[in-house]
Amino acid sequence: MALPAKVQWVTFDVYGTLIDWETGVFQAFKREAAREGFTIEDKDKAEIIRHFHEISRQVESGSYELYAEVLRQTAVKIAKEIGWALEPSRSGFLPDSVARWMPFKETAPQMKKFFNKYQTALLSNIDDKLLGQTRRHIPGDYDLVVTAQQVRSYKPDPAHFNEFARRIGTKKGWVHVGSSYYHDVEPCLKAKIPVIWVNRSGAPLETGQKKPTEECKTLLEAARLLGL
């Protein structure tokens, strides 16, 4: 499956692709733990992010709840894993931190290129309120937005992609750009949607994983793949 000869729509995952959520999550944990007298050091970042990946997927796989609630439950379970006696009533620190999750430095200049040539959309595993806070950091004239709240499910479930195809009436001329193989690349390959994997960490494909349409490390490289 190749990139379309004529691209009309480019859709983007948000967190990990445009927004550095890993730094945002880690800083939120470090700040809140310090307030409660529990020390989290910089060397603990990888462990916290690993727990976040595992636990948030488990929570998302259950009955649908707003992403703010997913974050609250995830915060409590991560705290337990690292030995921090976090009271559930204080777990709101994590959804509250989303407004401070910052974009990658390349996001704004590269997105301007996409806006100038293509119709663009955001397909995100988040709720409308929290995405509204994030969009202040990624300003632009997005033509469509599909959130987990709107489809009441989380990627890699295909609902985001099915809903977007329904809204534009076709899959032709569409390329998706995402940073998570699990949440974005795999469902796109199953649905035969051309996908560019922004593999910032250079993670290798695991046994049985199929190659994406294209792979790169930055949005700049993704833009170049699409002739920008």
From TrEMBL:
Pfam families: Hydrolase. PANTHER family: ACID DEHALOGENASE, PUTATIVE (AFU_ORTHOLOGUE AFUA_6G14460)-RELATED (PTHR43316:SF9), HYDROLASE, HALOACID DELAHOGENASE-RELATED (PTHR43316). This is Haloacid dehalogenase. One of its GO terms (molecular function) is hydrolase activity. Coiled coil: none annotated. It comes from the Bacteria. Keywords: Hydrolase.
